[in-house]
TrEMBL record:
<dbReference type="Pfam" id="PF00850">
    <property type="entry name" value="Hist_deacetyl"/>
</dbReference>
<dbReference type="GO" id="GO:0004407">
    <property type="term" value="F:histone deacetylase activity"/>
</dbReference>
<dbReference type="GO" id="GO:0040029">
    <property type="term" value="P:epigenetic regulation of gene expression"/>
</dbReference>
<dbReference type="InterPro" id="IPR044150">
    <property type="entry name" value="HDAC_classIV"/>
</dbReference>
<keyword id="KW-1133">Transmembrane helix</keyword>
<keyword id="KW-0378">Hydrolase</keyword>
<protein>
    <recommendedName>
        <fullName>Histone deacetylase domain-containing protein</fullName>
    </recommendedName>
</protein>
<dbReference type="InterPro" id="IPR000286">
    <property type="entry name" value="HDACs"/>
</dbReference>
<dbReference type="GO" id="GO:0016787">
    <property type="term" value="F:hydrolase activity"/>
</dbReference>
<dbReference type="InterPro" id="IPR023801">
    <property type="entry name" value="His_deacetylse_dom"/>
</dbReference>
<dbReference type="InterPro" id="IPR037138">
    <property type="entry name" value="His_deacetylse_dom_sf"/>
</dbReference>
<keyword id="KW-0812">Transmembrane</keyword>
<dbReference type="GO" id="GO:0000118">
    <property type="term" value="C:histone deacetylase complex"/>
</dbReference>
<dbReference type="InterPro" id="IPR023696">
    <property type="entry name" value="Ureohydrolase_dom_sf"/>
</dbReference>
<feature type="domain" description="Histone deacetylase">
    <location>
        <begin position="97"/>
        <end position="374"/>
    </location>
</feature>
<feature type="transmembrane region" description="Helical">
    <location>
        <begin position="36"/>
        <end position="60"/>
    </location>
</feature>
<keyword id="KW-0472">Membrane</keyword>
Length: 386
């Protein structure tokens, strides 16, 4: 609904500018202005200010509604969240970014072919404003109404595209992904584990996005899990194994003693956020010299020691696969077999200690990532009899 109102307003602004341009200059004047200048200025002003009004109405209306956890019978569902809208397409523009933005659908279809997913999986909706506003302030959500601001977060030159197109093609897929993380969180409380085939936007904090991350789904997930299940979710461990430092959630939980962050990352690549690193309770710098054996051995030690000392009641596993060999952005050397072993280690420790775990796919920029992720999830289901 919002996206369509947005599109209508945008078209109205565009119409005013085009109408102004089509007029012959100096033919008449309105309120003392040249008519051409009047319509162009009115259109430009409308472009700037209609989002403020729309966002304010949405923000105000969401104040009167406190969201409840999804009323689903999770015991009858395979705890894997997926929606076709996860896949980001924009008439080929998405190919300018190294991110394989359609990997979600590829993983889903392989899992379906293998019979792991049937018809009974988690289907998210678009994350409502009432959920977002708990974490993202009005000013941040307002900035997402402007193409230029979205460009700085997705790091693709899309500022020339009308904002409604970006809303349909970029923001909405991430809104589905964000709610998918939340749905998976609720399922994990019931089943002990869950996987969202999207999410893990770990460069986005409540006040700032970046690195193709627009909504802080990890912070949102933890906030609502603690709110909805105060008796079950209190001490939260984030295990971030994406090749990049998870500076978004780190900034959000920098002063939170009830959140323990383990981050294995390549310190020589984006984002190099030294302030956010203060939030990491267990940091491991991974470089090209780390092979599968060294990587998995470090992870095994980290999981054993940190779970024993921190005693988490909930684990968010950010399972980015851009640490796989050949990834031009992650620049690490973990093999597909190492990825499978890595996921197995995290699940083994969570299940053994009976701590609900939510796995989010996060980064992973190569075309070969989807089959490896599907193989790894298949391995988890067979290995642990899920
Ligand atoms: Zn990454």
């Amino acid at each position: 609904m919002y996206a369509w109102v947005d599109l209508t307003c945008w078209l109205w602004g565009a119409f005013m500018i085009v109408y102004g341009i089509c007029l012959s200059a100096g033919e008449s004047d309105i309120f003392g202005f040249d008519e051409v200048a009047f319509w162009i200025c009115a259109g430009a002003g409308f472009f700037l200010f209609y989002p403020v009004i729309l966002e304010f109405i949405l923000w105000l209306s969401s104040q009167f509604f406190t969201p409840s956890p999804p009323s689903l019978n999770f015991s009858n569902l395979v705890p894997i969240a997926y929606h076709p809208s996860y896949n980001i397409t924009a008439g080929g523009i998405e190919k300018m970014h190294p991110f394989d933005s359609r990997k979600y659908g590829k993983v889903f279809h392989v899992l379906k072919e293998r019979g792991i997913i049937k018809e009974n999986y988690l289907i998210p909706v678009k994350c409502p404003r009432s959920i977002l506003r708990a974490v993202h302030p009005f000013s941040y959500l307002l900035m997402l109404c402007y193409s230029l601001s979205i460009t700085t977060k997705v790091e693709v030159p899309v500022c020339f595209l009308p904002e409604p197109i970006l809303r349909f093609r970029v923001l909405n897929p991430m809104l589905y992904g964000t709610y998918g993380s939340l749905l998976a969180g609720c399922a994990a409380i019931e089943k002990g584990y869950a996987i969202n085939l999207s999410g893990g936007y770990h460069h986005c904090s409540s006040r700032s996005g970046g690195g193709f991350c627009i909504y802080a789904d990890i912070t949102i997930l933890i906030y609502w899990m603690r709110y909805w299940y105060p008796d079950k979710v209190h001490r939260v461990m984030i295990v971030d194994l994406d090749a990049h430092q998870g500076n978004g959630h780190e900034r959000d939980f920098i002063d939170d003693e009830e959140t323990f962050i383990i981050d294995f990352f390549n310190p020589n690549i984006y984002p190099g956020d030294h302030y956010a690193r203060k939030a990491i309770k267990f940091a491991e710098h991974i470089t090209e010299s780390d092979g599968d054996e060294s990587y998995c051995s470090k992870l095994e030690n980290a999981m054993t020691n940190c779970i024993e000392s921190f005693k988490p009641s909930f684990i968010v596993y950010n399972a980015g696969t851009d640490c796989m060999e050949g990834d031009p952005l992650g620049r690490l050397q973990i093999t597909p077999q190492g990825i499978i072993q890595r996921d197995e280690i995290v699940f083994k420790h969570a299940l053994k200690n009976k701590v609900p775990v939510v796995m989010l796919l996060s980064g992973g920029y190569q075309q070969v990532n989807a089959p490896v992720i599907a193989d790894s999830i298949s391995n988890l289901f067979s290995k642990f009899n899920l």
